Amino acid sequence: MTASPNQNVLIFLLTSIALIVLPHFYHLPISIFGFFYLLLGWRLAGLWKPAWLPNRWLVFLLTIIGLSLIYLQHQGIFGRDAGTHLFIIALGLKLMEIKTERDLYLITFLAFIVAASQFLYEQSLLMAGYILMVCCTLIATLVSINSRNPEPWLALKTASTIILQALPLAIVLFILFPRVEAPRWMLLNDRQQARMGLSDSMEPGSISELGVSTELAFRVKFTGAMPPPAQRYWRGPVLTQTDGKRWIPSPHHGLEAYMDKPVTTGTPYQYTLLMEPQNKNWVFALDLPIEFTEPLERNANYQLITSANPDKRSEYKITSFPHYNTGYITRVEYKDATQLPDTPSAEINALVTQLHGFDQPPEQFIKALLSHFRTEDFHYTLTPPVMEDKPIETFLFKTRYGFCSHYASAFVYLMRVAHIPARVVTGYQGGEFNPVGQFLEIHQYDAHAWTEVWLEGKGWMRIDPTAAVAPERIEKNINVDALATGETIQFATEGGNQNAFAWLTQARQLWSNVDYNWQRWVINYNRSNQQKFLANFGIGDIKTMMYWMIAILSGISAILSFFLLYQKPKTTDQALRHYQRFCRHLAKHGLIRNPSEGETAFAERIKATLPQLAQPAQHITDIFIRLRYGRASHDEDLRLLGKSVKEFTQENPLKKH
Amino acid sequence: MHNAINQLLASANQIILGKDHKIRLAVCCLLARGHLLIEDIPGVGKTTLAHTLAKLLGLHYQRIQFTSDILPADILGTSVFDSANNSFKFHPGPVFNQMVLADEVNRATPKAQSALLEAMEEQQVTVEGKTYPLPNPFFVIATQNPSHQIGTFPLPESQLDRFLMRIELGYPDYAAERALLAGQNRQHLLESLDVQLPPQQLHAIQQAVTNIHVSPALLDYCQALISYTRTSPEYTYGLSPRGGLALLRAAKAWAYINQRDAVIPEDVQAVLAAVAGHRLRAGNNHSEAIVAPLLEKVAIH
């Protein structure tokens, strides 16, 4: 049993713990969050009013309350959320019984676990920085516990030094330590987080206001040239079935194996795609993905599907060809692509006839329909009127206000009326170029729907009816700030960023670049990436990896220990430094002073072994002894010592024997 | 002053041959106002050393031979009824002398031992409720046989601590032995010794010793030594604070003898074995061996 802990140390500890639990606010239920800070506040009050602290029975009661809170929330203690909350409650309860130094250590280590558990929720660079900071305060707490006079600033300084010293080790461990994929059971019981993203169906008529999210969908870094904005179609699910209102994917899972391989021409685009976490296993490749690696697969609709856990960020290397010919159409495909929910109305038939849908080749009809969209009074809006009944007719003949889905569905419908196979393709279009990081950022507000029409001899061809109505939508970026108001739509004009807020944009892009690299190189550094990365250095298997890790760690530890051991001579005592220089010089002459050897004894030894140096050595020793052990130290002596040592080292240069 | 000390040392060296360092330590112990314990087998000159010092310092000298049946009263003195005055009169025992040689102190029973050792510590004797001060200077030289000899009651650690130093005389070397054998009778030589350092002068020197300067750097070294004894597994237990004070006191006296006005690490190292040897418990009982790791491993700066 040691004396009860110092009050300063306790304040320090409580502050760091308060900081550690703070970011958990985002996922902690308010009851548990409140309960924890109640306990913390109670403990803090107990510093000044020890009588207020709960006794053993009350602590027991609090424990019961804490556990019931967790049970009410999660019906158990397993899983990420319940486990983290259990740790937080335990930390709070442990605060109530700080009696010995041992309790302080226990709390500090528990706090480290709670700090680390934050990474189960949030892995951003900012959060990592914050956690590093609070870990620094925790280490400072440990330093204060072990020092006689806890000085917060000194402790923080020591803690920062410790963290800096640990950093190279941490980096080596990060790079070389074998990654273990989290077992599936750890993800049990976790409700899937709601992720933004495309859905696998489309019902344009029921939407009165398209939600525009600025959340990031994915990033793309091109190794060579980048396609022009109008060619940036990121292919997602293909919707073929419709009941007149709602569009869903084909129930027939066509296999690519039975289809013609696409014939490609032109220069390919090579890029790395970093998907943000999503709840679907879709990967949005540039039209048309030809080369890709595991775990990617391409389905019959040329959409890429990943078999990796989509809830994690993942990186894919893909090559796409902008010009392609998909060749023949299968029977099932043809049937799907010409499916109509009912016989078209007279109005529709009249429109198709008017646009020569029945008597001219498909190309002519497509051109006519697109110019119909362009010349007639059609408008692009994100806040279209609701079209409950017969949405396509309402859109085509009455409201004429709509966004991409409206145009795509109407277009496909009309094509099918004219017996041309057509389908809706959803995905993303465009992307914002980040000049700092040289990559494209595709946000949720870039979500788009376009169409594909099958033409004899050309295969599936992309037609974007929205481009006919609002070419700016395709060629430029939507001005998101204006969109948020939901009023009118303005398209960012060329050079529109060169306003007073240009630096803000730059800062955002810079940050986005830093974040991209963080996600790409740190968060996404999983087993396969590690293997690929280490293969560059010829490290192939886990065994060599471990050897390298142990070798590098030992190397770094050796260097650190060397510095720690040999930094001792660096003293603030000026006289001692002069004397040490004197000793170092003699060491070169082969005369090494034993650390426990007194100065006069050493002088005697010099006299015995190097008689020619005896006199100056004795002189230096005398001054040093006077300075170090004498009654009053004189600046004069110090100068004299410095001068004598200098002369000694210069006049007696190292002689080669 | 220094002359007088050199004279004293020279004279003592003529009586006890080849024990220069041990005599220096004994004198150092005296200047530091400490009591001395000499541990060795019989016949190596323990008694002669004590006698020589008493003679050279001109101190009243009394020898108490400790035996297993000695009683505290035999050391401290007793009250005897004086029929003339019709009252008890205190007859001081042999301890009431400036220099007391307690010969073979570990042959006495613990009760008798503690009577002497308490007098040493407190500089006074209390008999039947009355307190009698001991003379000043008061210096005890105790001798003891190695504790493995038959019929000994080893002094407990708490009482060993009362002695500032413990020294071992050891056999004389060949040349000293030869000189001893060829030379005159020691007893005669002893008789002919002159007082080299009268008590007033001794008192002045003792005063001067306390004024020897101790720098923070030296205290660092002392503390390093002390903490090494407390943390190293080589020692069962470390030096007590009293042991630390004793070390510094002895080092100051040693610096004085070597004509320095400030203590340097060598002074501490010189007295370390004598001061710390009997205060530490290690594998063996030989002072030099006990402190060897300290001298070897504790860095000076």
Explain this structure to me?
The complex is a heterodimer of chains A (657) and B (301). By secondary structure, chain A is α+β, with helices and mostly antiparallel strands. Chain A is 48% helix and 13% strand. The mean pLDDT of chain B is 88. In chain B, helix 9 packs across helix 11. Chain B is of the alpha/beta class and 301 residues long. At the A-B interface, helix 20 and helix 21 of A face helix 12 and helix 13 of B.
What are its keywords?
heterodimer; A: 657 residues; alpha+beta; 6-stranded antiparallel sheet; B: 301 residues; alpha/beta; 5-stranded parallel sheet; two-stranded antiparallel sheet
Mean pLDDT of chain A: 81
From the N-terminal CA to the C-terminal CA of chain B, the straight-line distance is 33 Å
Shape of chain A: elongated
What is the radius of gyration of chain B computed over CA atoms, rounded to a whole number of angstroms? Answer: 20 Å
Largest beta-sheet details of chain A = 6 strands, antiparallel
Task: Give me the side-by-side strand order of the main sheet of chain B.
Answer: 2-5-8-1-9
Spatial gap, N to C terminus of chain A: 61 Å
Structural class of chain A comes to alpha+beta
The number of helical elements of chain B comes to: 13
Helix content of chain A: 40-55%
How many strands of chain B? 9
Q: Can you tell me the residue ranges of chain B where pLDDT is under 50 for at least 5 consecutive residues?
A: none
Largest sheet of chain B: 5 strands, parallel
Q: What's the multimeric state?
A: heterodimer
Globally, the shape of chain B reads: globular
Count, helices of chain A = 22
Strand content of chain B: 15-25%
Order of helices and strands of chain B: HHEHEHEEEHEEEHEHHHHHHH
Strand order of the largest sheet of chain A: 9-12-6-1-18-17
Percent of sequence in beta strands of chain A: 5-15%
